[in-house]
Amino acid sequence: xxxxxxxxxxxxxxxxxxxxxxxxxxxxxxxxxxxxxxxxxxxxxxxxxxxxxxxxxxxxxxxxxxxxxxxxxxxxxxxxxxxxxxxxxxxxxxxxxxxxxx
Length: 102
What we know:
Blueprint: H1 12-20, H2 25-32, H3 36-54, H4 74-98
Helix pairs in contact: 2-3
């Protein structure tokens, strides 16, 4: 038996509405004409996404990032790296002095 593909995201609002009414996954699946596992998986993914948004985690876009997606601030990155290296040099210099080496 071939699998039937259904773009379940199209039914997102309807699924949420039926869930708020207290319908089970099986009832929702029968109403929409899809497998109950599709509904279960969609609800699971939706809840996971909502938890991440509530925690302040930004969702990542799907697929490979574009080359020109976000221009980087190279000057700021270099300034940060220079400050980090200066601090590391000072720590090493102080350590060497404490070990009585020059």
